[in-house]
Amino acid sequence: MLQNRSMPGSTVIPELVYPDVVAAVDWLCAAFGFSVRWRAGGHRAQLAVGDGCVIASEPDDLFAAPGDGPYSHSVMVRVEDADTHHARAREHGAVILQAPTDFPYGERQYAAADLAGHRWWFSQSIADVAPESWGGVSGPAP
């Protein structure tokens, strides 16, 4: 799998939604010993924990089912080929929330909902991109 400085090496990355990402990041680092990999303004951050990572992000109702409000969590999974993975998921009935899309942070990603409505992001590294090149700010974590 291609390495990308904007993406951790871990395969599975939980994403948790907080109403105040800055406060949440400060608390998670202080309480649980996480460290910042990068921040994107006050709306998103990647936190390193051991050889893994957790994403803290602000609420976003883009992926909410009608009537159920913003989602509270999702899971990101790194894959070798987002397009092939997307085709397989769609073939097996996953609800595609966003088709595979290239992002300036060096990832090709798509979003889907599973049979219980859980939100999943699948991400393929397509370039090695420093967070500063797309507006992020690197933290002390590797």
State the CATH architecture. Answer: Roll
Q: Number of folding domains? A: 1
Spatial arrangement of strands, main beta sheet: 6-7-8-5-1-4-3-2-9
Task: Report the biggest beta sheet as strand number plus sense, adding barrel if it closes.
Answer: 9 strands, mixed
Instruction: Look at the structure and give the mean pLDDT.
Output: 90
Form type: globular
Specify the CATH homologous superfamily: 2,3-Dihydroxybiphenyl 1,2-Dioxygenase, domain 1
Q: List low-confidence stretches.
A: none
| Total of helices | 2
Radius of gyration: 15 Å
Structural class label: alpha+beta
And the CATH topology? 2,3-Dihydroxybiphenyl 1,2-Dioxygenase, domain 1
Order of helices and strands: EHEEEEHEEEE
| Beta-strand residue fraction | 35-45%
